[in-house]
């Protein structure tokens, strides 16, 4: 429950009609994604099939970052945005959360910065925090105060992208190859029923519709390099908030700097 509470703090919705547009990627900044069917048929599989064993159905990415601990180093950005209304009301609701994470396998080190826009429980708008894991030690800097090895620090330092945006239980090659974030990657397709969405719970008479999505995997690194998802939602609960909402959800995950061990030190103020 403590871990879920931290995720609630990251993604709590606001209900102010005067709230501002979330920082980072706004709806107008996110390109319309092709439909899953269009992506699957863009090019014949025989032209751009990934190497074995990635040329069949993959089941290792129920969380997009499942395989990252086996890599020497990396950095990723993950963002979730919601814009809409509280279900069956005209009251506007918006939320945005963005996390950037660095990793150094040799040093057993991890750094995460979290920024949010919109009101959070007990926090001011446009809040930010930083957490660092250095071996067995965990640090958290919030509101200019550092805590070490507290339950909050431990949870924050170990937060994962999969806890925010989930992943897919089954993915199949989609017949496209590209270079994204400096890595050779292959497109994979998935069915809506294969989505793992830990941040979303369907309410009574609720539903969601996938309006766009992309999953790009690097076989040489056994890692998801990009996962984008657009959803239209009706009467859903986000991170166990008390009131259901309806609107649009945009999820974005990008992996960078694969193999580069980040220089991670004790955060400033600790």
Describe this structure as you would to a colleague.
- With 270 residues, this protein is mainly beta.
- It is 10% helix and 44% strand.
- The protein has four helices and 13 strands.
- It has helices spanning 2-11, 36-40, 151-157, 161-165; strands at 73-86, 92-104, 109-117, 128-134, 137-142, 145-148, 167-168, 172-180, 183-189, 195-196, 200-218, 223-238, 245-256.
- The chain has an eleven-stranded antiparallel beta sheet with strand order 6-5-4-3-2-1-13-12-11-9-8.
- Strand 2 (92-104) and strand 3 (109-117) form a beta hairpin.
- Mean pLDDT is 82; it is low at 10-46 and 119-124.
How big a fraction of the residues is strand? 35-45%
Whole-number radius of gyration? 19 Å
Largest sheet: 11 strands, antiparallel
Q: Give the strand order, joined by hyphens, for the main sheet.
A: 6-5-4-3-2-1-13-12-11-9-8
How is the secondary structure organized here?
Blueprint: H1 2-11, H2 36-40, E1 73-86, E2 92-104, E3 109-117, E4 128-134, E5 137-142, E6 145-148, H3 151-157, H4 161-165, E7 167-168, E8 172-180, E9 183-189, E10 195-196, E11 200-218, E12 223-238, E13 245-256
Antiparallel strand pairs: 1-2, 1-13, 2-3, 3-4, 4-5, 5-6, 7-10, 8-9, 9-11, 11-12, 12-13
